[in-house]
Amino acid sequence: MNFPRFADETKLESTKRESKPFASNDALRRELDRLMEFYQQGDQKAARTLITRVSPMLFSFFLRLPGNQNHASDLLQETWMRVHKIRHTYRSGQPVLPWLYAIARNIRTDAYRKRIREASNEQAMEFLPEPNAPAPVSTDLPSRIAALISTLPESQREVITMLKEGDMSLEEVARATGSTVGSVKQKAHRAYQKLRQTMRQASSHEDACG
Amino acid sequence: MNCSELDDFRNQPGSAHASLSPAAQRHLRECEACRKLQEFWQSKDPDAEPSPEMLSKIAESIFIIPVTPLQSEGSLYRNLLLRLAIAVAAGAALLGAAGWHAMAPLQLVVDFTLLALGSVLSARFVVRQMAPAALYALPPALVKVSISAAILAELLLLFPYAEDPAFVIRGLKCWSLALLASTFAAILFAGMLRRAAWLSPTSEGAAAGLLAGFGGLIVIEIYCPVLDRAHRGLWHFGATLTAALLGLLAGILLRHHLRKSDALHEH
């Protein structure tokens, strides 16, 4: 059976990535979905383009969640291996980003549990990774807020990371995390509240100290 | 605009680069915390980029061949229900319908309506879990627990209590037969489920086990003429729970097998 080839690669390549390549751009999102369909049909170029386009988002997702900074590259590779293995489960017409993030999330969880198991098997309990340990704090505001995000409960941290790094909608995040839209909205709301509260407290403390 | 409304705006895709309304801009001037959060939201970490070499390595390591996509949800759903119906029909044909004839009309209607509802909802979840990123209107675990609790409550409330000297022997017989029927249903499901993504083998196994369990429960409710609620509650419903637990166990074994298989592949 002959499948149509992904012939519009040059057109896509000329679309330069901005700092948020897929922000609110329905046409680009649909393009991602089409890339996945072509990938399923055996198109090597489409697969390569999809990997190039989506990997930065997934890499950011792994970097933002504590405990994974040193393993982000490995997790990214494992994610694409798993994507390749279960690519037949992507359904045409569905958004591909939540599908990819659901797989990435699963890989990340499995890797974390594996490290916990290996660490406890070696009886090196003092080296167990601390999932809520904040990333090293730099002086610029985004890094400081990123460090604050790492102190949030995991479910809230995950939602905020997907909303920001994946630029996904609430529904897409709900799909990726296997929960409901209401639950995702609530987690995001609580996360924002906590971040604002912490920033206000830090600000008051700075003012008090002069 | 207040903080909460700005949060709702931030939840929209593309919000990081969308132009802000005058109300949003006014709020950001007044609220330092929101201003800082918005600055973060619009920032990009320059170090969060995988190297081109890594991306090339990933692309070159996968051998692309066409695959047949999973059938549509609707098609899988009908397929699964058909397999369940076949299992139930086979069980009823072999064991008979003494239970059906023994029940009062109200018991028949309520009992089998709830069992049908439980089966239909369970099948929906099993199909949804076959592919990543399914959307749920309600938490699946809540729905499964609720429907199971409703069925148990119905078994305990609709049927009278009747002392039975052979409670255990009769009960074990029903429990075994229901479990056999569930096992047959699970075997029929397996052919379909092998194409699932199996991202969470334990929960997917438990879901499939629960559905098979409902199949076994329908068979035993059709067959068993004992109307004692203790008997039905413990042995009939107990078989359903056992099937769900066996599904969970199968999921655990599958997860272990998949991990070993991935580890071998890495080496």
What's the arrangement of secondary structure elements?
The complex is a heterodimer of chains A (210) and B (267).
Chain A: H1 9-13, H2 26-40, H3 44-64, H4 72-85, H5 96-121, H6 141-149, H7 154-165, H8 170-177, H9 181-209
Helix pairs in contact in A: 2-3, 3-4, 3-7, 4-5, 5-8, 7-9, 8-9
Chain B: H1 3-10, H2 22-30, H3 32-42, H4 52-61, H5 73-95, H6 98-102, H7 105-129, H8 140-158, H9 167-193, H10 201-223, H11 229-266
Written account of the structure:
The complex is a heterodimer of chains A (210) and B (267). Chain A is mainly α and 210 residues long. Helix content of chain A is 66%, strand content 0%. Chain A contains nine helices and no strands. In chain A, helix 3 (44-64) packs across helix 4, helix 3 packs across helix 7 and helix 5 crosses helix 8 (170-177). The longest helix of chain A is centred in the C-terminal third of the chain and has 29 residues, at 181-209. With 267 residues, chain B is an all-alpha fold. Helices cover 74% and strands 0% of the residues of chain B. In chain B, helix 5 packs antiparallel against helix 9. The mean pLDDT of chain B is 91. Chains A and B meet through helix 3, helix 4, helix 5, helix 6 and helix 7 of A and helix 1, helix 3 and helix 4 of B.
